[in-house]
Amino acid sequence: MPEHQPINKRILWSRRQLLQTGLVGIGLAGAATGFYQFQRRQAASTVEIPPIPENTPTEGNGLSPMVLLRNFDYGTLKQEKGRTIREFQIIAENTTLQLNSAVSYVSWNYNGRVPGPILRAKEGDRVRVVFLNKSGHAHTMHFHGDHPSEMDGVRPVRNDTATIYEFDAEPFGIHLYHCHIPPVPRHIGKGLYGMFIIDPPGGRPPADEMVLVMGGYDVNGDQHNELYAFNAIPNYYKEHPIPIYQDQLVRLYLLNMIELDPAVTFHLHANFFRVYPTGRTLTPTQETDVITMGTTERHILEFAYRFPGQYMFHPHQDAIAEAGCMGFFDVIPKKS
In CATH, what number does 15-332 get? Predict the structure, then answer.
């Protein structure tokens, strides 16, 4: 469905019109829960997701990066002409993030959060994204993956207008979306990006799944990042380690969205991870403890910890790590 024409041709609606149709109603999917089978060391054991620690600080919009870590948005399912549509509602807006005790930052973002919602579908699903721009600037949503040219998200959506992107979810893997208005590095650097996961038709083996997105902040406009972060807030997971259970499989969806730096690495302490490049394979291609990624590069990493304790993760560019892109996994024994 092309962009930017009346409802019977191209789609361009005001916020009022969208509200009247009932299409705008954002709800974030809850964090994944349940029991899983561990596949690396103890295939017969069950796996539970640890509870979120109490009193974890939030972003400027009241959402905790600890919640965002496992917060997958599967959209709303609708039936139209015998086909299932997976519909998402996205609003571009501005939100002030408190990056540290001294620095607040006005982000441009999707649904009031950085990164934007973790959109998730299965290969072959029909995906519809209703996009409303309320940020004061022209923005778009450009999706990586396969889709028709009219759905490519490069034509500007002006402030206080809306459009619809609709396409089949393919191929399976980890994709992303971001604003494609020039200068693109500025729009991405301000926070207009998110992850788009397309699961293979048969799914993946169960695991404790989570998302880490690396981002950078040019806070003074000198074309150099002064601060870095996983999931928006510098040093958040350093000060509030991520709880995981001992001897349980973790599936980490990792995305590098740092602009202005050509490449970064991701390093895991005291362990090795199996790499599924771009999520486009069901079997790992290597096992390592450090991997290099350019901007928008992404991979699935799987690992489990044998011993309890706190273990660091960070880029191995130490200046980037020390400027906020650092965290810990808090490995805890399961209660008997």
Answer: 2.60.40.420
